Amino acid sequence: MSPSNVISTEPTQSSTNQTSANKLSAKPLSASNNHHHNGETHSSGDTLVVADMTTIRLQPRRPLRLSIGNRTLSFVIPIKDEQDSILDLYAMIEQEVAEARDFEIIFIDDGSNDASWQVITELARANPHHVRGLRFRRNVGKAAALSAGFRSARGSVVFTLDGDLQDDPREIRRFLEKLDEGFDLVSGWKKVRHDPWHKVWPSRVFNRMISRLGGVPLHDHNCGFKCYKAEVAKSLAVYGDLHRMIPSLAALQGYRSTEIEVLHHPRRHGISKYGVGRILRGFFDMFTIYFLRHFSERPAHFCGGVGVIMLACGLFFLGGSAVAGEGMLRMTAVGIGAALLAAAPAIWTLGCIAELLNRSGLQRTRELPICEDTQGYVPSK
After folding, report:
1. 237 and 270 both lie in a single domain
2. Rounded to an integer, what distance in angstroms lies between the CA atom of residue 218 and that of residue 94?
3. Is 161 left (phi over 0), alpha (psi -120 to 50) or beta?
């Protein structure tokens, strides 16, 4: 994309030393010929001036394409201590999608410690039709923030992106064009990343493993910039750290995912909210996806397999104790073998109980992945 499409922010001389707190009274508007004479916000066709005298240049919009003009769009954006990014992100999205039939931007404040919520409320007050803010009492994680946004989204297409300005809203049209090729979910691929090595290399290993275990071959499962059909977003049960597994979760219900290369910008403000601890959690989440993919409707098969392995190991230790002679080695082998033999039936029983519970739940709530019917009837989701 050419540099002429970039939205730039340029502070005037009087705002050079202003802090982010001055932005709280900012009230961005759409790029139309609107004027507010109260000294806070005004727009003159191609520029937007907010209260701290920051000028946002809005470059001329590209011609309308059907990929945007014939649908309603929802943007779900989790926020954690991003007060300096929110206004710029809003202006960038607004420029790209103002020609849509309708659009909404849902900011979810995930327990921020800065003035992010004040910025969101001011923005929602100035643009009540297009901006909505949700606030958590405490920090509960990105997955919960996405779930709240998915529940609140009203558009026929739902986008997710991070609030740190590293995702580029100029990619929105490319996402929609790819979605129109028949896919249900389009994920971004940050082929060139502007992150430290200790985030990039573990991420590559993680993506290779989850592609194999989850059955969805993507380069960047964890990219926050994604585009969904509304039915996909509404159907996802995202909790814990499973927001990194969304394409695999969608595949469990038969939805088709793909990816496109996207621009990735260096972080402008603040610091990353993720540490190395998420690497270990990621491996457990991969096992969760593997289990859900293969055993969600037949847990007794999983428990049965584990029980057989324990039984075999128990017999091995007991057999070994017969030739181990007398002494501590034999007593240890007998103890381990007996414990494994006793545990195997318990695991099988646990599998039977899980099967009964699963059967009862499926009879009441199971939704089959029917998307079309020659008789014209599609079950409600």
Report:
1. yes
2. 29
3. beta
226-229, strands of its sheet edge to edge: 131-135, 102-109, 72-79, 157-160, 226-229, 185-189, 257-261
| CATH number of the domain residue 102 falls in | 3.90.550.10
326: containing domain: 297-362
- Three-state DSSP class for 48? strand
Helices 86-97 & 116-126, crossing angle to 10 degrees?
Answer: 30
Q: What is the mean pLDDT of residues 132-156?
A: 94
Ordered DSSP codes for 115-138: SHHHHHHHHHHH-TTTEEEEE-SS
Listed residue (340, 198, 353) closest to 278, CA to CA: 198
Estimate to the nearest angstrom the gap between the alpha carbon of 264 and the chain centroid: 16
CA distances from 97 to 18, 73, 88, 105, 271 (A): 30, 8, 15, 11, 28
Higher-scoring residue by pLDDT: 328, 259 = 259
* In the predicted structure, residue 293 carries a pLDDT above the cut 90: no
CA dist., res. 192 & res. 247, Å (int) = 21
> Are 73 and 31 found together in one domain?
yes
d(CA 221, CA 223) in angstroms, rounded, equals 6
Whether residue 312 sits in one domain with residue 269: no
- The number of CA neighbours under 13 Å toward the Cβ of 141 is 11
pLDDT digits (tens, 9 = 90+) for 92-123: 999 998 777 789 999 999 999 999 999 999 99
For residues 167 and 304, state if they share a domain: no
Quick check: 23 pLDDT over 70?
no
pTM: 0.70
Residues in the chain: 381
